[in-house]
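Data availability (excerpt). The following record was deposited with the supplementary files.
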Amino acid sequence: MSTYTFEDLKKDVAEGRIDTVLACQVDMQGRLMGKRFQAEYFVESAYKETHSCNYLLATDMEMETVSGYKATSWEKGYGDYTMKPDLSTLRRIPWLEGTALVLCDMLDHATHAEVPHSPRAILKKQVARLEAMGMKAFMATELEFFLFDQTYDEARLSGYRDLKLVSGYNEDYHIFQTTKEEDVMRAIRKGLQGAGIPVENSKGEASAGQEEINVRYADALSMADRHVIIKNGCKEIAWSKGKAITFLAKWHYNAAGSSSHIHQSLWSADGKTPLFFDEKGQYGMSDTMKHYMAGLLSHASEITYFLAPYINSYKRFMAGTFAPTKAIWSKDNRTAGYRLCGDGTKGIRVECRVGGSDLNPYLAMAALLAAGIDGIEKKMELEPAFTGDAYGAQGVREIPRTLRAATETLKDSAMLRAAFGDHVVDHYVRAAEWEQEEYDRRITDWEVARGFERA
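Predicted structure:
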């Protein structure tokens, strides 16, 4: 929740500091879509509602009008949804002159009920389930990305070949190399802080040109809201400085993947009592935490699509790269898919290391919460912690290796169908199927180089 209020906005508009308001919805890919309002009109009228075409929740990355969705189609005429600004998300955007931003909930145009397959509604439903149990989820997402010393247009016009990274060597925790990148990274930290997103730090990551930005944890919905603004802001700030950023999960064979690890814990409804902590429990884990983690592991394959939604996402899961290949848990072990952090303290939490930087945070968090809630409701027993190198472990639960495999487990998930609804699961199954269909009919550079002469 932002501390910038609608009254603050009205004052800024009246005194000429804000002239544009971005009213944004979040699409299936986790991108911001919406309109730029003249600020005077927004504070007079549009703060109540505006509208957008309902195809925005039924397209792919290319904005293709994909067939096979029940929610909307050419046959149904691609009508409107209502965009209802959530004024608690209102904030100034310091890196855009005279600009404020607000996130919107998506409502049915006729009934004004929330659109069930909209990402924000999916997460809100799981948050409400927790509230009914007297619990509140707090989460934090760690975002990694690669920074390039050229513009998006330059990269595109080159066919994304011969891309020039901002550095030439592994810069994990490297101060001197990241000093050379401070022009961009300082602007990102200051910009996000000024937008009401409390920043903890930035750092170099495990490959040349790889960065990480960390912000303070928050309740699940606020964290997801922050996440999408962070990604959009990082791109806009880099673009303004003649640079480009990619959140591809695996941009190059020789480079590490980019993740979005999700730290999660449950607290009392007032946010004061940590429900994952029991000083008498193993590692300080409460029974609630054990049940929650057992749910994550039990449903690990079913929720993978929401952590890895694209063909490219699965190229990241490689042994020896700090990206997991096994859906097991371990104490402070970065080779496992689920890592216990903060053991023995009130800050005890589980870090899901499966998700890539390309995930939609609302969908990923909702899937994790749904799995954890199922574990709590069924009092699932947590398996023993794994010790050692998980990459070499035999006979343990593996992360699905392809989008095709993850799609099948999503389709067959009784847990997610009960938590999200059949319509929602079917909607995202169709999104996954389309992504696979599009890839299956494409010819890659690798295929041509491998077989042009020798096939």
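Summary of structural features: The first strand starts at residue 20 and ends at 26.
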